[in-house]
Design a protein that fits this description.
Layout (H helix, E strand, L loop, with lengths): L1 H11 L6 E2 L9 E9 L9 E5 L5 E5 L5 E7 L2 E8 L7 E7 L3 E4 L6 H4 L6 E4 L3 E4 L19
Length: about 150
């Protein structure tokens, strides 16, 4: 009986609050940075971007006044991206691949159900390309010491 009550409580439990996605990456984590526009091509601010990992962990960020957003500190793997804004339908982009030490710039042309839909809609601008953070190592060189003349 106790197990049944515990199972019911876990099932009814509210969704865990999403983790804010900071705007940085490192050699072990990656991120996405892109721009959100409406069906007329205008940038849309205040869009809530929710990235959900397959294991249930969720990150969130918002677009700025130019429609741009950055979500970093994401472990490498596959994510589902959802755009949420009042008065707009909420498109979902499945199978977003995040790579370590790289920014994903843009996404494929959006969900099929919204590509041909008329009316107001949101979409992420840009081709799905990666910008790897290059860690250029400059070798140390010893400064030249001038020879002291000897007489």
């Amino acid at each position: 009986m106790y197990c049944a009550i515990l199972s019911l409580c876990l099932w009814v439990q509210a969704e865990v609050e999403p983790i804010p996605a900071p705007p940085y990456i490192s050699p072990s984590v990656g991120g996405i940075k892109a721009e959100i526009r409406d069906s007329n091509g205008a940038p849309v601010s205040g869009v809530r971007i929710r990235l959900k990992a397959p294991m249930g962990r969720t990150w969130v960020t918002f677009s700025n006044d130019r429609g741009q957003f950055k979500a970093g500190n994401l472990p490498p793997g596959e994510y589902t991206l959802e755009l949420l804004k009042d008065t707009y339908p909420s498109p979902v982009y499945p199978k977003i691949r995040i790579k370590a030490d790289a920014w994903l710039l843009g996404l494929a042309p959006g969900p099929p159900e919204l590509r041909g839909a008329g009316g107001r809609r949101l979409h992420v601008v840009g081709a799905p390309t990666y910008e790897f953070v290059s860690r250029v190592i400059t070798p140390y060189t010893r400064p030249q010491i001038e020879k002291i003349p000897t007489h």
